[in-house]
Amino acid sequence: MADTKADLDRVLATVDADLDASLERLFALLAIPSISTDPAYKAECRRAGQWLVEDLEGLGFTAKLNETPGHPVVTARSEGGAPRRVMFYGHYDVQPVDPLELWNTPPFEAQLVTAEDGRKRIVARGSADDKGQIMTFIEACRAWKKVAGALPVEVTLMLEGEEESGSLNLPPFVAANREALAADLALVCDTGMWDRETPAITVSLRGLMHEEIVVHCADRDLHSGYYGGAAQNPLHVIAKIIADVHDADGRVTIPGFYDNVRETPDEVKQQWAGLGMTAENFLGPIGLSVPSGEKDRMLIELVSSRPTFEVNGMWGGYTGAGSKTVIPSIATAKISCRLVADQDPLHVRDVVRAFIKARIPADCRVEFRGGEGSRAVAVSHDSPDLGKAAQALADEWGKAPFTIGAGGSIPIVGHFKKQLGQDSLLVGFSLDDDRIHSPNEKYDLTSFHKGIRSWARILHALAN
Amino acid sequence: MADTKADLDRVLATVDADLDASLERLFALLAIPSISTDPAYKAECRRAGQWLVEDLEGLGFTAKLNETPGHPVVTARSEGGAPRRVMFYGHYDVQPVDPLELWNTPPFEAQLVTAEDGRKRIVARGSADDKGQIMTFIEACRAWKKVAGALPVEVTLMLEGEEESGSLNLPPFVAANREALAADLALVCDTGMWDRETPAITVSLRGLMHEEIVVHCADRDLHSGYYGGAAQNPLHVIAKIIADVHDADGRVTIPGFYDNVRETPDEVKQQWAGLGMTAENFLGPIGLSVPSGEKDRMLIELVSSRPTFEVNGMWGGYTGAGSKTVIPSIATAKISCRLVADQDPLHVRDVVRAFIKARIPADCRVEFRGGEGSRAVAVSHDSPDLGKAAQALADEWGKAPFTIGAGGSIPIVGHFKKQLGQDSLLVGFSLDDDRIHSPNEKYDLTSFHKGIRSWARILHALAN
Questions:
Q1: Contact (CB<8Å) A239/B236
Q2: Minimum distance, in Å, between the CA of residue A189 and any CA atom of chain B
Q3: Is the ipTM of this complex over 0.90?
Q4: What DSSP designation does A163 have?
Q5: Which fold has domain A207-261+307-373?
Q6: pLDDT tens digits for A233-269?
Q7: In sequence order, what are the residues at sequence separation of 6 or more whose Cβ sits closer than 8 angstroms to the Cβ of residue A324?
């Protein structure tokens, strides 16, 4: 097996030389409308999976389409005798394309478009999320195979077809296939760059606990003229609960809410402080200017390394035109908590419920619906693999990657840790303006090209 | 003109003797489906008004149907030379009858039904609200005319056809007909008894100020994974506002909210204390047990003589099935304040708006829609007419009437004071179980019979 520095240089040269062929393959995959949420596209989802199986078999992987109660999962294994194995995760399904009339080009006819600033972009549904990203990895493997005949590390791929519809069948699939998916490390390519010039490694993903809260007061809607001032109003009760959750400094007051929350290491905070995330550049584009969260935290902490409590929906009483002097019998709120570090979703659910119950008047009651959750994912900031990947990215981009926390959640990453014992290395090349989930989704040609080169380097680095 | 005690006795005897004929006339009026909110019944509303004009003309009144942009207003005047004049108000329109399948008998075919407890009830839409009540007054006039040839006091009637649809055209009608409607006192028969044995005079009606509040934060809906913890959530902002409105003792904290609120006289409070309104008997039937309002007030004060602030509707964000981790851009609440005594709706609107504005984050904004209002109506507790009516009711029922405050609002009563300079005497005979606005509306035969006798006595009493 040859994974020397000389090999890497030849691999990178091959990536450059074969870019047009790589693009052709990506365009073929992008042409398949694998919309997982719409039953009408069930056969197309299967066709996208089958396309990947055939492409990976062509690369020498042992690949198959695994049935699930939903769309199939693609798995593929290399067997070349390398000293360690990594497991790559991505998804081949895409979001729906509505509203179609807002697309400038047909969503499943990928185009290479030159933007006004001269940059080339691959425009198609799935270009950035996530077909373009998974093909950066597969093309890197292809170049290694072509140049060296083998990969620097053994690779297992698991490509699902239900990420956009909630990955419902993936956790049981992972649990049932522990042996086949065994590896030292998971690689995930479904995240973004810090900006066009700066690569990023996502070292934490927030977890999520969500819950629907229903406050019941009187057993029927009441006339406010007759009962106003005497009968409990569930809209007042639920407003009081929500208002009590945060203190004047933006801190969550629920006892136990911050249990097990780890402090971000000082050196990471120092690095974050240098990233230049300001209220002006982060909140300005959405019409806001003042961060709403904990006053003693940097903005970047608020959106990545701190837990949150948010109301996502709330309703009750009369919501039509004009006025109706009713005191409703129930009020409802949908809440969600972003979780960090070692927070246990069930513990958070319990302390949230206790906090709410303590605020329900004696003659009223509360009902909880949901209370599901996923743990946050945190990669140790000083793992050797992280350092290797960081160096590989620095070599490619001429700039050290930022290690960032992502505010969102990729619940499956928690399952990799829990079911497979694998830490995840999250590296991706999408940009903030890629319009994922929206019309005219695009992936910069640079993201694709340098993304392939980045993975070629990372595979090399992880072997050494 | 004869209005001696002997005349009254003969009038009451006539009422008793003619009860069947009185019922027949009421049933004829109840047979007309004068549903004012449904344009399909426009002609029927007119027919009900016309029926009343003809009936009143038959009694010697000068009656007419007055056009408005909506349904016509019936007016009628007696001219017999009595020393003073009163103006009686009621309405001939009724609520819709849906759901029709819940009626045990056709809603516009009035029936005299004997209930399980042996009491006789007039069952029909409008029996209690308000055709049965206005006919108690008209039949009392009829008996006086029959016995004495004249009324003890001159009477003007104004019977509208749009009370159930908001009385939109009545205030301008009143303003345009000040001379024709001139009188010493307004009589209103659209309220209820305290209970089956105890008559009541309603001495106050709460006013109303209602408003829709829209809180705007970001200029678009946000993903809570990306912005959660940093971007203002309008659902949190509106919850905080609502929560701040009441302190732990149930008192409204809005500065200026209680300006001009008059304290109920001690003697009235003492009377109220004896009425036996308890949390158990008032809140028990609706599934509650603990009064929610000001802790240092009697329950009866809370629902009649104290101002309130209630949220009637509130909504924002995702309200569908499952969860969606959105931070919405706007949140809305519909609020209403019941007003008492000398509270000015515009002042209350202003202090409420100032309170809300002070709680809007610097980078968010609030929009107010509505802010309309009507003043409360309070009758002096020691007016001579009130005392006369109270004695008349005590003579009829064998029990002194309770002078009560009604929690609801009858805005037109405010216009009588403002436009016509008339205090209102609110006497009615409906009962809590009359199911007004619901299927199987009824009016006890006792309410009708003794209601006629009561008005016969009151007309006599007001002349002396």
A1: no
A2: 18
A3: no
A4: G
A5: Alpha-Beta Plaits (3.30.70)
A6: 999 999 999 999 999 999 999 999 999 998 888 988 9
A7: A318, B312, B313, B334
Asked if A286 lies within 8 A of B222 by C-beta distance, the reply is yes
Shortest Cα distance, chain B CAs vs residue A464, angstroms? 35
Residue pair A133/A451 in contact by the 8 Å Cβ criterion:
yes
Residue of A nearest to B298 (CA): A230
Supply the pLDDT for residue A164: 84
User: Angle CA(A347)–CA(A203)–CA(B326) in degrees, nearest 5?
Assistant: 60
Of B240, B312, B319, the CB nearest to A224: B312
Cα A365 from Cα A359, distance rounded (Å): 10
Angle at A307 between CA A302 and CA A313, to 5 degrees: 95
Q: Which of B206, B302, B319 to mutate to test the interface with A (most CBs of A within 10 A)?
A: B319
DSSP E strands, B134-206: 154-160, 185-188, 200-205
Q: Which of B204, B188, B11 is nearest to B86 (CA)?
A: B188
CB atoms within 10 A of CB A9: 11
List chain A residues with CB under 8 Å of B215: none
Helix (H) or strand (E) holding A120: strand A120-123
Q: Which helix (H) or strand (E) segment is A374 a member of?
A: strand A365-374
Q: What are residue B87's DSSP bridge partners?
A: B156, B186
Cβ-Cβ contacts under 8 Å between A and B: the total is 270
Q: Which residues contact A114 (CB under 8 A, 6 or more apart)?
A: A120, A121
Question: Does the A5-205+376-463 domain belong in CATH 3.40.630.10?
Answer: yes
Q: Alpha carbon B21 to chain centroid distance?
A: 29
Cβ–Cβ < 8 Å for A286, B222: yes
A73-77 vs B330-339, strand pairing mode = unpaired
Helix intervals (H) in A160-262: 170-176, 224-227, 234-245
Q: Mean per-residue pLDDT for A156-167?
A: 91
- Closest-CA distance, B363 to chain A, in angstroms, reads 5
Q: Return all residues near A191 (Cβ < 8 A) that are at least 6 apart.
A: A200, A202, A406, A426, A427, A428, A430
Specify the residue for token string 């028969």: B189
Contacts of A340 in chain B (CB under 8 A): none
Which sequence spans correspond to the domains of chain B? 5-205+376-463, 207-272+304-374
In contact, B15 and B142? CB cutoff 8 Å: no
Helix (H) or strand (E) holding A65: strand A62-66
Q: Determine the residue among A253, A298, A315, A430 to mutate to test chain B binding: the one whose Cβ has the most chain B Cβ atoms within 10 Å.
A: A315
* Angle of the A19-30 helix axis to the A5-17 helix axis, nearest 10: 60
String of DSSP letters for A303-370: TTTS-EEEEEEEEEE--SSS---EE-SEEEEEEEEEE-TT--HHHHHHHHHHHHHTTS-TT-EEEEEE
Query: Residues 6 or more apart from A118 whose CB is under 8 A from it?
Result: none
Nearest residue to A242 (alpha-carbon basis) of A215, A217, A219, A263: A215
- Let me know if the fold of A5-205+376-463 is the same as that of A207-261+307-373: no
Secondary structure letter of residue A100 according to DSSP: G
The 10 Å Cβ neighbour count of residue B211 is: 21
> CATH class for domain B207-272+304-374?
alpha beta
Q: Could you count the other beta carbons within 10 Å of the beta carbon of residue A146? A: 14
Q: What is the per-residue pLDDT across A359-395, written as a single tens digit (0 to 9) for each?
A: 999 999 999 998 778 888 877 667 899 999 999 999 9
Give, for A62, the enclosing helix (H) or strand (E).
Answer: strand A62-66
Q: Do A315 and B310 touch (CB under 8 A)?
A: no
pLDDT confidence tier of residue B458, bands split at 50, 70 and 90: very high
